[in-house]
Write a structure and sequence with these properties.
The chain is globular and about 45 Å long. A hairpin with a 3-residue loop joins strand 4 and strand 5. The relative contact order is 0.20. Helix content is 20%, strand content 30%. The protein is built from 3 helices and 6 strands.
């Protein structure tokens, strides 16, 4: 897809969660006008500040989005991602097309992607969350670093 904006021109909406904003600022500092190398992002270290963090890329055949690395978070707001497994095994069924499409677009365009869910049911809770995916250069091609932030969680009956 042809795009008319540079990755550095991407702007987050006003009122974004502070950790999402800080993670995006970190990516911008590391990018210095070009996509940063994945080696600049130590998930183990970064997960102390950004617990719901994952590295995503394509399988060797270039057909399936895979979890390449996953932070050891205590509780994910969706099925826990597993390293070296397809994304579709963790993404809630109603969201698969949207999530896969957004990640593929980010890989192809090199432009970050930000998304907020309004809310959805998850094990007896209404959960609202935000996600940012930023492109990076991987050893075998483009990859993403994705970070999720829970904005709100309430019990319902």
């Amino acid at each position: 897809m042809t795009t008319h904006i540079a990755p550095s021109d991407f702007l987050l909406p006003a009122g974004v969660h502070p950790r999402i904003g800080a993670f995006y600022a970190l990516w911008r500092r590391k990018s210095q006008g070009d996509l940063p190398d994945v080696a600049q992002f130590d998930l183990a270290e970064l997960s102390e500040t950004y617990p719901l963090l994952a590295r995503i890329g394509m399988d060797p055949a270039g057909k399936t989005l895979m979890w390449l690395d996953v932070a050891a978070a205590g509780h994910w707001p969706f099925k826990t991602p597993v390293k070296d497994r397809p994304l579709v095994q963790s993404v809630p069924l109603p969201s698969i097309k949207r999530v896969i499409g957004a990640f593929q677009e980010t890989l192809a365009s090199g432009i970050p992607d930000y998304y907020e869910t309004t809310s959805w049911g998850n094990g007896g809770q209404t959960v609202s969350l935000a996600r940012i995916a930023v492109p990076v250069k991987g050893e075998l091609g483009p990859e993403l670093i994705a970070y999720w932030e829970v904005l709100e969680a309430e019990n319902f009956s």
